[in-house]
Specification:
The complex is a heterodimer of chains A (319) and B (322). By secondary structure, chain A is mostly helical. Chain A is built from 14 helices and no strands. In chain A, helix 2 runs parallel beside helix 8, helix 2 packs antiparallel against helix 11 and helix 2 packs across helix 13. Chain B is mostly helical. Chain B is built from twelve helices and no strands. Chain B is globular, with a radius of gyration of 20 Å. Classes of the chains: A mainly alpha (319), B mainly alpha (322). At the A-B interface, helix 6, helix 7, helix 12 and helix 14 of A face helix 5, helix 6 and helix 12 of B.
């Protein structure tokens, strides 16, 4: 029974995701059809890729840390992104964001974020220990440090320059081009596929460190590998469209609520479908209703947050 | 360091730093000349130095204590006092004040924002009241979701009116703007902290979960609501008068419980002291480092705090492993 219900829900979610994607691609279809379709496909692919990477990374991260309110951004990766972009504008003005080659900016951002995470892991896991609590605290400290530097710089920046920076600090697919998409996909997809090999080990890790070891999971190495996967996914998706980490929290928790299972495979699938629905839907609303006047993350947070509260409240009625 | 020594040492540091904070600044005010001050010096002391020092101590104590209670209630070490959506509601209040009441005085804007923050907290408690608690994770989780909904509304309007940078500026921690007539809201934190101490044991019990608390004869929902109300009141007045202060609400309670265990009532005074001493020290450094100008507290707290906490965390980990 439980199994069938989960399958049905998963099916509905995937169907909905597909429907939203089609709606975005084909409605309305007039004017230079070839051009429109190419543009929209590019955007939809970028959105889906980002959404998938974030959903995947968040569920893995929450499983490892055994904490449902954390997102990978807690170890300070978003803060690295924001500091880097702010520093660029602060040092050379907002025009650099236009003139610096997009690919170079992308590559630099990814390299910085992954580099930061690896240094953090390396320092912390130098001994055989895998003290996650310690890792998270150090991550928060580093993130706060970068965050206060960023705020400091932002207050000093000339207001006109700031508006140039502002567009970089909100997630947006409008700056994605096909080369970037290729880079992004080339990084994230193989990494996600590789991570799937450990998905069963994750089920055991969800029970806690001691149980996992008892069940024969090689705890330390698996966790370290998964943390690197999380870092790569977060770096690539943030560099591609900008920070939207709240989305991960949202879809991960929504999928825990919808599916009655502890298996990470279906949960990840549901979260990916949900994030596609939310992101593509938000992009649709942003383009066709608000005429680009509002950042996509605003719509995602507003609608998604209300939806989540609804889910939580509804559960009470069922009890 | 032994526990019996910790409190006296910290108290002594607090007294010393308070004195230093009163006498550091461009206008020369000396302890030896305290009884022979001219009018200028009296004015500087009363409108700037005393308010500033009081604000720092209040903010340090308040945020540390608020963070500790919040973490105890939700049994989650990664929850900060602003997780209940308080600061998001306060931001919305500031934005509304800027858009609709641009000509109002700063104090009026602050009061409006405070009302928003309290209304937001009340709404949050209403939502919490309606959900079935399965475990303690729901308090911060619902808080995060709620806060993000509110902040998406803020961003939506701030983006249209091009006020994002203005809001950021307002909320950047800054004690230089704390002068007489701008900080008095902070005194609201005093009764809140005292109440927190009275309720400390009940918060501990509530943190063990709804069933357990009821078993022990504690009215779970009421205690949680009281705790949340105290936490929000404190963090709202701090954010509005001083701005965001990183670390205080999150890391200081963590550090204290890392070295001293999880006894809430015993940790409260310690956390309060550590918070105040830390903030005072950071502020004095910020005032001296490019004297006669000063560096915003957010930056000094960020930099000094990171270095110090990394060192302490490192050391703490070593000793716990040995």
């Amino acid at each position: 029974m439980k199994h069938r219900r989960n399958l049905v829900i998963l099916g509905i979610l995937l169907g909905l995701a597909l429907a939203v994607v089609c709606l975005y691609l084909f409605v309305p279809l007039k004017g230079n059809i070839q051009y429109i379709l190419r543009l929209r496909t590019l955007k939809v692919l970028a959105i889906t890729l980002t959404g998938a990477a974030i959903a995947y990374a968040t569920i893995v991260f929450q499983t490892i840390t055994n904490n449902r309110i954390l997102t990978p951004s807690i170890i300070g990766m978003d803060a690295v992104y924001q500091l880097f972009q702010t520093a660029l504008v602060f040092l050379w003005g907002s025009t650099t964001l236009q003139f610096v080659d997009k690919q170079i900016n992308f590559a630099l951002t990814v390299a910085l974020m992954i580099g930061f995470a690896l240094v953090l892991y390396r320092v912390l896991f130098r001994k055989d220990g895998t003290n996650l609590h310690f890792l998270l605290l150090v991550g928060i400290v580093m993130g706060t440090l970068f965050g206060s530097l960023t705020t400091f710089l932002q207050v000093l920046i000339d207001p006109n320059e700031y508006s140039g920076l502002q567009t970089r600090l909100f997630a947006s697919v409008s700056r994605v081009n096909s080369d970037l998409l290729l880079f992004g996909g080339g990084i994230t997809i193989p990494v996600m596929l590789y991570g799937l090999r450990h998905v069963r080990a994750l089920d055991a890790i969800a029970l806690g460190r001691d149980h996992a070891i008892n069940l024969g999971v090689d705890y330390g190495p698996v966790v370290r590998r998964m943390l690197i996967i999380v870092a790569v996914l977060m770096a690539a998706s943030t560099a591609l469209v900008g920070p939207i980490t709240f989305l991960g929290l949202l879809v991960a928790n929504a999928s825990y609520h919808m599916l009655d299972t502890y298996r990470r495979g279906p949960l990840i699938a549901a979260a990916i479908a949900l994030s596609t629905i939310f992101l593509v839907g938000a992009q649709l609303v942003m383009e066709r209703v608000f005429a680009y006047s509002t950042p996509i993350s605003v719509i995602v947070n507003f609608v998604g947050g209300i939806y989540f509260l609804y889910l939580v409240l509804k559960e009470r009625a069922a009890w | 360091m032994k526990r019996s020594l910790l409190i006296p040492v910290l108290s002594a540091a607090l007294v010393l730093l308070t004195a230093a904070s009163l006498f550091v600044g461009v206008t020369d005010v000396r302890l030896s000349g305290l009884f022979r001050l001219d009018d200028d010096q009296v004015m500087v002391l009363l409108t700037s130095r005393v308010p500033r020092t009081a604000a720092i101590i209040l903010a340090g104590v308040g945020m540390g204590v608020a963070g500790l209670i919040m973490q105890q209630l939700s049994r989650n070490k990664f929850v900060s006092p602003t997780t209940s959506g308080t600061d998001d509601s306060a931001r919305l209040g500031i934005l509304v004040a800027m858009i609709l009441f641009g000509s109002a005085s700063t104090m009026q804007k602050m009061i409006l924002a405070l009302l928003f923050a309290l209304a937001g907290t009340y709404l949050f408690m209403l939502i919490l009241d309606r959900i079935k608690f399965k475990d303690a994770v729901f308090i911060p989780l619902v808080g995060l979701m709620f806060g993000n909904i509110v902040s998406s509304i803020t961003t939506f309007f701030a983006y249209r009116y091009d006020l994002l940078q203005a809001v950021t500026t307002w909320l950047q921690g800054n004690f230089a703007l704390v002068i007489k007539g701008r900080y008095e809201l902070l005194y609201l934190a005093v009764p809140a902290v005292l109440a927190a101490y009275v309720y400390a044991n009940k918060f501990t019990i509530a943190g063990m979960g709804e069933d357990f608390a009821i078993n022990l004869g504690v009215n779970y929902k009421r205690v949680v609501n009281i705790g949340l109300a105290l936490v929000s009141l404190v963090s709202a007045v701090v954010i509005l008068t001083v701005g965001m202060l990183p670390f205080l609400g999150l890391i200081i309670p963590n550090l204290v419980s890392m070295f001293q265990g999880d006894h809430l009532r015993r940790n409260l005074p310690l956390t309060a002291l550590v918070g105040a001493v830390f903030l005072l020290a950071c502020d004095i450094v910020g005032r001296l480092i490019i004297f006669p100008y000063e560096v915003p507290i957010g930056l000094t707290v960020g930099v000094i705090g990171s270095a110090m906490f990394l060192y302490l965390l490192w050391k703490g980990q070593r000793t716990s492993e040995a």
